[in-house]
Amino acid sequence: MTKPKLSIADSSRLGYVGTDVRKTIDSRNDDWYTPTEWLHLADRVLKGIDLDPFSSDSANKRVGAKRYFTISDNAFKQEWEAESVWMNPPYTRGLVSKAADKFIHEFELGNFKRGMILVNNMTDTRWFKRLDDVAVMSSNLTGRIAFENGAGQRISGNTRGQTLFLFCSKGRGANYIKKRFAEEIKARGSNVKVKV
To answer: Could you tell me the pTM of the whole model?
Structure first.
């Protein structure tokens, strides 16, 4: 007896969007590149991107981070010493939770002073709550981001909205970073949540 086909979005592209199908998909399908407009926003807010911990050679051609870790570098085993970190984490096999924990751990150690993380707005998960608790600002973005493949073509199949979190150490320049984040987000028609 043949199994019935699932009536869901293209399963070959679901590694990023966090469905149960992700357990059967290999990590090459985590290559959902952040569109350039969002990378430019991150670059302006963070005053440059020093480290992209979950990247590749081709992805960094877009991101332009001074340093980046590829899958063979294993970001989980690295120290993230940098001024700023940009992260669009992998989702295959639940890696997003582990990546969120590592991001928070490195930030709380003081290994970086400014950071942004772009994730699906999965408010019912523990990892999302942890990010929300530590971030100084966040925005549940209006609309869904049209992610791209390595050739710069938009990928269909993004079934979730996204949240952008801002992490910023207290001290000189923190108010500028937060103000810039709010301006950039509001210019795109989204609201900003400020941690009190």
So the answer is: 0.80
